[in-house]
Amino acid sequence: MADAVIRADRGTLRIRDAAVQHLVRRAVLDVDGVVAHRSGLDALTGRDLPRIDTSLSDDRVRVALDVGVEWPHGVATAAGGVRTAVTDVLHRYAGLDVAACDVTVVPVQPQESERTVR
C-alpha cells in the first residue's frame, strides 16, 4: 500500500490508500444495482462485497473491484457505472487519474424481507 504524492508549486499532498478505498467504496455503492453483501461465512473471512484493491503511484491509481449486483440488474451496465463513478470520484476529490479500473461482478440474490414471528 503506497501513498499517492501529488506535487504542486505550493507543496505536496499525500493521499493514503485507505482514503482512496473509502472514496471508491462510497462511489461504488451509489451505482444503481450495486449492493453491499455479506453472507455468514464471508463475515468470518472478511470477504464481504464490495472488495476493493488499489495501487497508487504518484498521481495515478489502479483499482480492482469485486462488486455485488442484485438480480435482475444488467451486469455490463452496472460494471460500466462502477467504472465511471470510480473515475469521477477519484479525479474530483483526490486529483488522481485512474490508469485501470477492473470490475468483477458477483451476482447477488435480492434480500428476502424479514419475517416477524409472533
UniProtKB/TrEMBL annotation:
InterPro entries (alphabetical): Asp23
Record-stated family: Belongs to the asp23 family.
Protein name in UniProt: Asp23/Gls24 family envelope stress response protein
